Fold this protein.
Amino acid sequence: MAAPFLSVHIIPGYVDGFVFTWELTRNFIDPAPWTFYVEQGPAVDGPWTVLSPGLVGVAIWADNLKRVFNKNRVLFFRLRLVTTEATYYSEVITPYGDLPRRDYLIVKDIMRREILQQQKLSGVRAMLWCKSTWGTKCTACVDPFTGDIMTSNCADCMGQGIVPPYHGPYEIWVTFSTDQKNTEQSAEGAGLKQDYNWTVRMIGFPYVHDNDIILDIASDKRYIVDGVANELEIRRVPVIQMIGVHELPVSDPAYKLNTSQEQEGCVFP
């Protein structure tokens, strides 16, 4: 069977080890749940050793293993996906495909310093849900003929039209700007309304996209992403992200998202 992996990357983290991210093709239709395993081998053809526990409902994993490298050592990794219908394997990748090793280590150190500042002074702990771009179409609310989403309050897909609608959550550190008021005429003609917007600063992983959800753990408030810009890149790899967000009302389906994260290695220190 054709492998459903659209991309697999190893990106710098601010701790020991590597951070693995992956994405499936949009036409992947095997029913959930999907269980992913990160595997490591000494050569491109293995033998393969399983590094991760079974990862369900996520598309990012950090192994946080401290490794000692010499100049000649090359590591090889792949993803294994197990569904109720088949087992799939990604292409084999190496850690420094996107960055030379020296630049990779520079990125790690910049991220480490950013996280240290957030932990000691400016940041707050948060959780990130990434909107799914692949999955099975929701049979409860998607019109089978037009493909239109019939309700935003669907219990299965939360109005996204895909099951599951999000993957995560991933624990992150962020720095919120002061609130910015946006006053405009309401659509209902009831007068002026004020929307509050913020800019959120965080390191380059997990990479954030529009319509992802950020939860401020201390206040239990949810924010939706409506713009992302990379403040710092090294060789096109995001190092520091600046994210525009606005607060969601408590009636939004995002408040139904589960805040627990039990998967080993998915919560970043």
About this structure: The mean pLDDT is 83. The radius of gyration is 20 Å. The chain has two domains: 5-109, 114-256. The domain at 114-256 is CATH 2.40.10.370 (Thrombin, subunit H).
